[in-house]
Each structure stands twice: as C-alpha cells, then as structure tokens.
Amino acid sequence: MNDNASSNKETLIFLLPYNDILKMFLVELAKGFEKIGFRCLYLDPQKKAEALNIILGAISQKPAAVFAFNHLGLGLSLSGNTSIWETLDIPCVDILTDHPYHLYQDFDILPPKTAIICVDKNHLGFLSRFYPGFPVTGFLPHGGLNPEGQIKPLTDRNIDVLYAGGLAVDFADNYVPDVSIFDFDAISIGDRTLDLMIACPQKTFEGAIEEILMEDSIFLSDEILKELIIRMRHIDTKAVVYFREKAVSAVAKRKIGLTLYGSGWENMPWYSSLNVTHKKNISPYELSKVMMDSKIVLNTMTWFKDGSNERIYNAQLAGALAISDTSLYLKETQKGYVGNDDKDERNMVFYEIDKPDFLPDIIDFMLDNPDSSQKIADRGRFSALENNTWEIRSRELFDELFPVLKML
Fold first, then answer.
1. Do residue 259 and residue 208 come from a single domain?
2. What is the mean pLDDT of the chain?
C-alpha cells in the first residue's frame, strides 16, 4: 500500500503498558484493528517527552481513539493536570483487566471522554455504583493468542499438565491495611469476609463484605463502603491464593507430571517432587509455544465471577485440553460439562473450585483417555478460533463501541 493510502487511514493510538502480558493484549488488539483498516500508532507513556513529540509531530488528523490498559498513559499531559487526550479532544478506551478496586488510584485522572471496558460483568456494577459519571462502560472478555506453527496431536506432546500462574503469598500475607478511619473492627470484618468467600466461592468480594457488614447491622454510605473495599482488597488476593494453592497442590501430590511457570511456589512441600518441573518466567508468546507441547493446560480463575481468562483461550488455540474452574460467563459461553443425556460436546473441562480433591481424578481420566481428550481439545480450538481471538475482540469493539465513541 502506498504512503498516500496509508495516510488516509484513521489513526488509533495504543499506549504501551509495562507488563508483558498486557503488552501482548494491546499489540494483538492493534493487529486486529489494522486488519479492519486502521493505522495503529504505539506510544510508550513512560517516555513522556518522546511520546508527546510523536503525538504532536506525527498526527495530521485527529485520531479516532486512544487505547490503554488499566489507565496507563491516560493522564499524560503537556503541563499541569489536564490530560493531553482531553486537550486534543480524543476519545479514550480504558480496558481494565483487573477489578476496579485494585486500580482505584487513577480514576480521577481519566479524561472526560473515556469509555471504560471491563473483563468481568460484575465490575460494571461496581463502576456504576462507586465511580458513576463515565459516559460509556462495557464488557469485553479476554481474547486468545492464535499461535503460529503446527498443532500436534495430544499424544505427541511432552508435557502432561502445564500451569502458568504465580502464587501471591507475600502480598496476601504481608499487606497491612490502614483501617484507622473506621469506627468498627474492620480487620474482623475482613477475616469473616474471607471465610464467607471460601465457604461460598461464587460470591464477589464486594458482595461478601457488604453481607458481613449487614450481619452486624453496620450500614455505610457508598463513599465509606468504597474506602473499606479498597483498603481490604487483599482479601480478594487471599481467596485467590487459597483456592489456587489447593488446586495445584492436589495435582502435584498425585504425582501427575506438572510443569509450572510463575513465582511463589518455592515453599510448597511438594516443590522438589520428581513429577514437578518449575521453569523461569517467559514471555506470553513463548508460553503459547509451550502450550502447543502440553496435553492439558490447567487454569485457575482470579476472583472474576462473571468473566473470562485469557489462559483458557490461549490453551484452546494451542490445541491443548483446557481445564478450569468456572464463572457465570464461562458457563454461558463454554461447554465444560457432559450433558444430561451423557452426550459429550465439551470444548473444555470444568472442575469445581470448592472440590479441588477431585481435580487429579479428572486429569488422570483425561490423560488415560487420549481419544476423548483430543476430541474436546479439537472442539475447543474450533470454538476459540470462531469466537475468542484478539482479532475477534477488535471487531467487537469496532462494531459495538466505535459508533458510541463518535457521539462523544
């Protein structure tokens, strides 16, 4: 395509995050928009002067939108507190890959014309209650990375079970919240909230803590409740750590071949077992290649009770059998259970988060029945190619969000 044709394309600006996983999300999303016909410009907001020079010097027409993950770069300014995106009157798309209470610090710096996109439907309710006023909010599930290369049959793969994810024990155990502003025992409220989340893991953290408060006849304004949720957000991480450790430990103790990526596992009593291989962290693109040599990819959800996780789609696209605990969204969009008529149309396999002791039995059965596992993996790859690549997410944003952005 000649330069003149390229210059006539609408421009989208993508603000590069520092995190490798988020950077992969952003780059793959941009590739999808390039296929639609946009010119995509990458900026590193951590290099402020360079980024500003590129913005002011390379743009002949106002970009259609700015894309960012988790607020990063949306507060970029020429001087003072006014974002350059507000100054240039460019709509922004802020994709939150974590719960808003983990990203509370920067909501006040977002430009007025910001659409906030969440990867869990419950997060939209939290936003509308505690951060009202944004002109557009919406839901977008994660996408998956479609790897290059041949998809091998499961029987030709060398890794029995792959698990990629850390165990954030240090933060969960060592974070000390400042609760001095509250006139009730917030630490006790937090401890009981964690107990409730472990007993009833379908509950959200914000829902569980409000339930405990109501048990004690403590009624807070939304502003104070938001402050309590933010200061006690480590309870979310504690719940994730609890169930993640239970699931992975159950597999490791069964002597199933387990390859681990991620930190925090070093102090587990089974860590030095012969069946466990711990690898250093690698890039998301390299990890996708490892998934292509894995029979089973085990996923444990973060505390997203109505959302997705990219590891499931990455595993399916790599031709592996994906096994995961559930969410409302996953139950609606994936087939993880055998039907009531015993007809097996699964495209992945679900396990119950509160029954981790059954997980090794599920994995053993799938490893012992490669034909059944292969059929599930094949259906999973077909489903992910049809519905859950980042290119598809770009198209969904273009079809559903862009008409709204043009009206801002």
1. no
2. 93
